[in-house]
Amino acid sequence: MKEPHIWNFAGQKVHMVGIGGSSMSGLAQMLLSQGFIVTGSDSQESYALDTLRDLGISVYAGHRPDEAAKADLLVYSAAISPKDPERVAAKEAKIPQMERAELLGQLMEGYEHRVCVCGTHGKTTLSSMLSQILMDLEMNPTVHIGGSLDRIGGGTLVGGKNIFVVEACEFNRSFLHMPPSLAIITNIEEDHLDCYRDIEEIEEAFFEFIDKLPEDGLSIGLSDDERVMRVMHKSGRKFQSFSLVGEADFTTENLRYDSKGCASFDALHCGELIGSVQLKVAGDFNALHALGALAASLALGCDAEKACSALSRFEGVHRRFEHTGIVQGMHMYHDYGHNPAEMQSAVSVACMQGRRVIAVMQPHTYSRVKGLFKSFLTCTKAADITLVTDIYAAREIDPGDVHSRLLVKGMSEHGLDAHLTPTFEDTEAWLLRNGKEGDLVLTMGCGNINLLNDLMQAHWDDKQSKTEELNGE
Question: What is the pTM of this model?
Fold first, then answer.
């Protein structure tokens, strides 16, 4: 059967399996805005499904094979098995099927500048920073990111046909479906070991991606990462580098941090001052992301000083060290970090505030916990206390040989004050019983751990409201 192309189905019904995912829900909105009839399903109810319903998209939780069989095209995320009932029904009905990354790659066709932000960490923040620059400078970009940015009203924006900014994820080699003209590489580290044999195979996949650049294409990467530099050198394409303090095309001067860990710096290009940045988001990694976004914006023709000003207005992406409220005097934060390096970075930012830090880890997928087990044992060492919930299975079936209690045992053996709180109810009870006023509680994970913040805030607000009623206030 000939491979389907999205524009052959213009105005027709596209059914999306796994529509609640950050990328899939954004693509659903993009298709809707361009005249497609969109429906979809997901494994469970979520805010994303509610948002899609508000837009008029018919979505549901669970499996309805009969509904999927009515579509003209079925799109599925990489996490959806060929044995999924809706995919099986579509196959029996001879309905063409397409993986999410293929759809995104096809939507990128026809844009002059196809900007792909890839790397193990930092993709969402860097692509969001770049998107804010392009929006503020009225460059009218089309954007598809894996998070929610208030500046563009979510994770997707349909703009002009000149610039398309996307996150290019290496999971399942998805980014190999994309046609980049400009690629930004934040880093290359070990992750997704359910898809890759080892770090060498991961590096090879990044090379394959950079090798997709046209001969006149450009890559921009972190000079401190030898794998990034090796991939860019090997490609034979033009490349630029960035580093906060090392040797690179884009660097900083007068780098400093405020009491919340937010960086300010003078940005240099080839040693020449091009502007000053005062970030509202904390961490040295966010300063790096800003520098990478600045380099990319200049490659796209932006004015350097105006780009620096736009970066100084950037207020962050939801679920990236996001302050969610105060519960019983505890300052609640959430971060999307889900592998040890990301969690360690998030904890380091939390520690900059000088508070007692309680890290709440929701491990994500059994394969990741097994593949990076040793690193998980110490990634929250800088926190005063670590709570560990049950592993969020996501796309995987429990193999029975790994459990969060093994993580807690190993953490304790490494000197961490670690506790197993399997459920959200267990975690909330522990925090309300043992938390102190002024503590910083940081929940971490890319599953549904962010809902714990919402639940705790709702319970606390309700308690406060009832107390005020009893006191006649």
Answer: 0.82
